[in-house]
Amino acid sequence: MKKIDFKAAAAQAQARKKKDKSGEGKKEVIERPKRFESSPVYYKGEQVAVLNGTVAEYKVDIWSGAHPAWQGKKGKVLLDNSALTKFQEKFGMAADVYGEQGMEQVKANEELKKKQEEMAAQGLKVY
């Protein structure tokens, strides 16, 4: 059986009480981070949102409005490859003969390809 020195334990308890009363054992006050109201969120140089946080402005590589997973799309972003679009890509220069139906999708595909090339040049993932 272990022997307990009650006199030493009582002396330690009194020393702790004196320390607590004198304020030596009190914890330091933790300084909170600065809070910014209405911090802008930038995606590809454009402001896409405003939020409260600890940073004056946020620059993000991915944003819910641009990511296919949050848009309800599955897999990779694919260009529209309908038969009409393929035809207009080949013979778009003859739109006066065949009509301009589908040309807006061809232009949208070209813009999307340019954006993907810019992202790849910046070292970002291309979806």
TrEMBL record:
Residues 21-32 have a biased composition (Basic and acidic residues). The gene is RPL31. GO terms for cellular component: ribonucleoprotein complex; ribosome. GO terms for biological process: translation. Keywords: Ribonucleoprotein, Ribosomal protein. It holds the Pfam family Ribosomal_L31. PANTHER family: 50S RIBOSOMAL PROTEIN L31, CHLOROPLASTIC, LARGE RIBOSOMAL SUBUNIT PROTEIN BL31C. This is Large ribosomal subunit protein bL31c. Residues 11-32 are annotated as: Disordered. Belongs to the bacterial ribosomal protein bL31 family. Type A subfamily. GO terms for molecular function: structural constituent of ribosome.
